[in-house]
Automatic annotation (TrEMBL):
Protein name: SDR family NAD(P)-dependent oxidoreductase
Start and end residues of each Ketoreductase domain: 6-194
Family the entry assigns: Belongs to the short-chain dehydrogenases/reductases (SDR) family.
Domain of life: Bacteria
GO molecular function, one term: oxidoreductase activity
Keyword Manganese: no
SUPFAM superfamilies: NAD(P)-binding Rossmann-fold domains
Keyword terms of this UniProt record: Oxidoreductase
Length: 255
């Protein structure tokens, strides 16, 4: 799937991994629809120019996301929408039982799973329905979906029951979705980032972030959002990448 002159919808585009991906794809000549709850997408779309549109949406809303996909299909013109890079998500930390013996908050658990997992399904189903209507391109493809998991799906730490479960669900959907959508010539991939330097990390205590960075075998640092964007672009252009989850983590295995 080529990037130039194609249209991509990016969620979580106001910040971190999503914003870096939007900038990279736009710089490579793509048209981009930037989706986020945060109004930062409006300024980013203005900066990226004519081929960029902002949509202030909640990814868990069926109606709002349908409108965003309609915007993307219209922006794509004859070619429609070529791909989705779904980065919107939240992190949460809570122990099953806190230090005073109280059980974890059930509403907070359900919120994390709803945004990260149900939200991913919402984005995937609407993306697939929109792209299944495309004519196949020169390489026979109709579209590509890239979801964002986390290494916490595999090596979740204490306090990450909600986050790990939500991201493990994203991992679990990759293969069945790729199998199903193969008949529409739509690929489905997921990236499982390690520890990346984005605003999301500000929600984790600084000493914990530094400890994680020190545990990365090589390079011994946090990942850069541009490195995520680089992999997203490679997934778009490489047609053999399908039904897989790629860890992007410098070799870290969290304890
Ligand atoms: N930063 C890391 O180290 C790291 C590691 C593993 C996985 N991830 C995952 O990568 C993705 C991007 O994270 P990031 O680090 O760029 O975080 P970030 O906080 O910088 O950006 C996330 C964006 O998602 C948006 N968002 C959250 N809930 C939303 C909703 N319901 N509807 C629309 N937009 C919503 C936020 O407004 C924000 O702009 C997330 O799914 C996160 O879980 C991040």
């Amino acid at each position: 799937m080529q990037v130039k002159e194609r249209t991509f919808l990016i969620t979580g585009a106001a910040s971190g991994l999503g914003a870096a991906t939007a900038e990279r794809l736009a710089a490579a000549g793509a048209k981009v629809v930037l989706c986020d709850l945060n109004d930062g997408v409006t300024a980013l779309a203005a900066r990226l120019g004519e081929g960029a549109k902002a949509c202030l949406v909640d990814i868990t809303s069926a109606e709002q996301m349908q409108q965003a996909f309609d915007t993307a299909v219209a922006l794509g013109g004859e070619r429609g929408l070529s791909g989705v890079i779904h980065c919107a998500g939240v992190v949460s930390v809570a122990k099953l039982v806190d230090r005073d013996g109280n059980p974890a908050d059930l509403v907070s658990y359900a919120r994390t799973v709803n945004i990260n997992l149900v939200g991913t399904f919402n984005v995937m189903r609407l993306a697939a329905a929109a792209m299944a209507k495309n004519s196949p391109d020169d390489s026979g493809e109709r579209g590509v979906i890239i979801n964002t998991a986390s290494i916490a799906a595999f090596d979740g730490q204490v306090g990450q029951c909600a986050y790990s479960a939500s991201k493990a669900g994203v991992v679990g959907m990759s293969l069945p979705a790729a199998r199903e959508l193969s008949r529409h010539a739509i690929r489905v991939m997921a990236i499982a980032p390690g520890v990346f330097e984005t605003p999301m990390m500000s929600e984790i205590p600084e000493d914990a972030v530094q400890a994680l960075a020190a545990n990365v075998p090589f390079p011994k640092r946090l990942g850069k959002a541009e490195e995520f964007a680089q992999l997203a672009e490679q997934i778009i252009v490489n047609p053999m990448l399908n039904g897989e989850v790629i860890r992007l983590d410098g070799g870290i295995r969290m304890q």
